[in-house]
Batch of 4 targets.
Target 1
Amino acid sequence: MSHPPDAPTVQRVDAEQHYEILVDGTRAGLTAYRDRGPQRVFYHTEVDDAFAGQRLGSRLVEQALTDVRESGKRIVPVCPYVAKFLEKHEEFADITDPVTPEIRQWLGTELG
């Protein structure tokens, strides 16, 4: 008899500066960030095609943003997926900073 799959889990991987979502131990997606003082600047989110349609992206981002709140940091949504998520989830508005040209320039330098 087969066992049901484990619920997807989200973990922060500081060494790689991203959060990842795991399904049965396999990385199904990630949302990448860089820290800029008290801000966590999210710039890229992806979910592997093999895991599409399972709402993993929104679960990943929601748990990542919850972690940002618990860490005492602020969110800067350069990533279009994170920005769109925040439009629908006003519970994070109090810790969200606008994306400015200065932040975009800083991020470009950070990412090389």
Target 2
Amino acid sequence: MLLMQDKLKDAALILKRSRFTAAFTGAGISVESGIPPFRGKGGLWERYDPRILELQAFISDPVGSWKVIKEIFYDFFGQAKPNKAHLVLARMEKEGLLGRTITQNIDNLHLEAGSTLVSELHGNSKKLKCMRCHREYHAGQISLEYVPPTCNECGGILKPDFVFFGQAMPQLAMAEAFEAATLSDVFLIIGTTGEVMPANQIPIVAKKHGAIIIEVNPEPSNYTSVVTDIFLQGKSTEVMRKLEEQLFSTPLDDDQDGID
């Protein structure tokens, strides 16, 4: 069995040789920024009724829905900052080692970290959209002292621009994600257990198209024994910090310009 240091070296070498790499992130990458996952032990659904994020419930009772949404996503999540794992992915993109970040998270932390090529499969809580005229606002532009917030143009109710239960996934983000999966030589999974459909199929598509799968998770996931080639077990911040050291301290031979 390979030791962790050997796995990190192997992963770094594979990433350096890759012509195109995509990252696929879930709730686990943001836990160390203070954002708990929705599911599992200690998850938000242990404290809140998930029905508050049903689209029909929001339409029927926007005041009641917004009171809980404000508490979770703006009073609490709004203070979160990118952690080391987000920053390493942004650096990888800047250095040409990462072609796209695909995220299931709605916290905006990849963009705040400096990543620009980001596909947000479930939308973004920092954006609000009018349900009547579809005008978009940044959450910082809108006062949430009284809820529900309303559009400055038409007076329509503003909805957080993330995917509610019963709402379609954003087509552009999904198309970008599946395209990246088919193009990837390497597919880097970070902080997701692989439970949420249809996003959980994206790594499967990458594997079917020949990608090497590198997984970073504190515990084995639904992917580990099925598609993962290198499993880097540990907290995402710790593993990505060590991977960064390998990526940017060990030079790659000039004649090794693609995955063999």
Target 3
Amino acid sequence: MNKSVDLSTLADWDQTHVWHAFTQMAEYEPLLIERGEGATLIDVEGTRYLDGSASMWCNVHGHHHPRLDRAVREQLEKVAHSTNLGLSNPVTVQLAKRLTEVAPAGLEKVFFSDDGATAIEVALKMAFQFWRQTTPAQPSRERYLSIGEAYHGDTLGTIGVGGVARFGSIFGPLTFEAIRIPSPAVCRQPPGTTPDEACRASLSGLANILEQHHHEIAAVVMEPIVQAAGGILVHPPGFLRGMRELTQAHDVLLILDEVAMGFGRTGTLFACEQEDVSPDFLCLAKGLTGGYMPMAATLTTQRVWDAFLGTHAERRTFFHGHTYGGNPLAAAVALESLAVFEDERVLEAMQPSLARLSERMAEFVDHPHVTDVRGRGMMAAIELVESREGPVRYDPAEARGMRACLAARKHGVLLRPLGDVVVIMPPLCTTPAEIDQLCDAALAGIDEVCGR
């Protein structure tokens, strides 16, 4: 930071010139983060906060991790960036190879881009083009099927397959409309519905749609196991496996969005491992680089790859790309992050913290203003209501979730809500003691804003 600029000036510039994402700028109050250590962020005045949202769900091993820092520095001694359009570099090639080794079987081809939305956009366009170039061609397959309350990004294509109205409805005239099925999450079913009943009903509805419309559908797009930005909506066991079986039966491509779930977030490296599912496209971002650099990857199969091969004159090329796709700095830190997973046995080491998070979440179940507590792995959600009877939901204009998260800051914790759902999703390195601090702060914030 330029020490010649005082903190009040920086705050003024932040409020005047920086347009923050998903933020009502008329109500924004600056908070300038300067440093990070492990699961902690430190602002310009030295105040410490536990990073309860993993810096928008992307930080994996903690801030200022020595091995990740070193990977970036060592790559800087070579080259910071060279284009991936018709060229390559050693570290990006190594990362692509490593991703094919850790990903589900059959995903052998890797297309690099910049962030989660672009990873999904790549898969949507590849699927669309695939059906025009495969043998025999099936150009009627130009629609997508997705899940209600799903979020896949903010580009026009990803808005088309998204289902969170508050994020994308205003842009409806600019994009397409996917076929949608309701979320199978039990918390979105009638009271008393069991997970098995929710799974069967959802798969039955899906089967009917595919039976009638499979010839129109290029791909199904879904987040496996958990719908993250839709409110941490946990799918019933067997739904993902059933989805894969139905798409295979009707030869519909399956795009799995593991942007939020990938890299240990649900307790396994990829969420789809939990039901032994291998998709046609696997979309990765956020935790890919451990939260260090913007990078995304869309993995796909030999079958899809083959449909794009031919001479230049045949114009079968995938005419899509990103300036920083395959960036060497990002590739270097992503490769090292995967090594850290293996060397530090991250998935095993995080088990005590997962157990502690589950224990602490149980304490919210009986709160008079909590209608549901849910989660998977290192992601948990507390859904707020005015009254559990009904339930009666708060007026969205009251922004109870956001206010509860702001109140939690007084207790040294940074959280972000999803509407009136308070989300706890810290780095995987967070200790059981830090889990306690996160949960204590969340409870204090909810009590301050909602009362008992």
Target 4
Amino acid sequence: MAAPPLYILVRLWIRGGLEAEFEAYESKVLRIMARYDGVIDRTIRTSRVSEGSGEPFEVHLLKFPSRALYDAYLDDPERRSLSAERAGIITNSDILIGTPGPAYGS
């Protein structure tokens, strides 16, 4: 029996006015993520009114086949080389990691 996939919920806050830069950064990271069979399963752009609203700009649901592949992605030298670019765009993020839960109501 195969191990269940790993899901990562990421909430991202960005600097106001840097939406295009954020999208360009995310495109770079997505290419790197694909090397480890990771995907952005879902992207949710919040309806935040202003930068100080407390809501994140976007929420991502990432999916990796295993924890080992996710860890390898985190340790990827190219991804790490983008840390200064990330810091200039993203002001805060938080991450929750888990595996599939019960299918309520299915």
